[in-house]
Structure formats: C-alpha cells, structure tokens
Design goal:
Length: 124
C-alpha cells in the first residue's frame, strides 16, 4: 500500500507545475484524497481535496482559481495542477487518502495513507 507523489521542482513566480499522486495496493475511488503542504517553520495546511469519484472537491481560499485537483481512476492517480504560482506557495507538498467527504473538516482527521513529500520552490 503506497502513495507516490511526484512533480515538484523550481519554478518562477507566475509559472505552473503539475503534481501527481499515484496509489498502489488500494483503490483511490474508495477514498477522499487530499493535498497538504508544509512550508519551513510553518504548520501543515490543507490545499485541496477530492472525492474518489471526482464529483466533489474542496479548496483552501488562497489557491482557489489557481490550483485544480483532479483524479484519473483508470490510472489510480490524483493530480494537482498549480498555476500562477507565488513565492508563498513554496512548500513540501504531500498527498494523503482517507475516508470521508472533501470538506475543510476532512483535514481534521489524520489520513491513514500518506505519500512522501515533493518540494515546490517558487522563486526568481
């Protein structure tokens, strides 16, 4: 059972990156999947989450209109398309899966499945 996050890197302000979170050993369609991020010296925060069917999502206010979460059930993979990136988006990004519905309260429960972090650095 594993979540594998990838796609991080260095990007200039205003640029874009697409993160991937691929699951193995279990089916994402049975869970809500969320992206977290943690910047140096700051608490971990929820970014966006999506239901396993892809029919429902939740987004933290600071990324609304800039980030888009999606799921490809055939590939058992969740994506986070990030656009108009800002220096304050710099953080390690983690994906996680847990039962529940995609709302802000989903982030109050520690998920059972975690991927390793992928570092996103937004800098000129």
């Amino acid at each position: 059972v594993q979540l594998q996050a990838s796609g991080g890197g260095l990007v200039q302000p205003g640029g874009s990156l697409k993160l991937s979170c691929e699951a193995s050993g279990f089916t994402l369609a049975d869970y809500t999947i969320g992206w977290f991020r943690q910047a140096p010296g700051k608490e971990r925060e929820g970014v966006q989450c999506i239901s396993g069917s892809g029919g429902s999502t939740w987004s933290e206010d600071s990324v609304k209109g800039r980030f888009t979460i999606s799921i490809d059930n055939a590939k058992n993979t969740v994506y986070l398309q990030m656009s108009s990136l800002k220096p304050e988006d710099t953080a390690s990004y983690y994906c996680a899966a847990a039962p529940g519905v995609p709302t802000s309260t989903w982030y109050l429960v520690t998920p059972g499945y975690w991927g390793q972090g992928t570092l996103v650095t937004v800098s000129s």
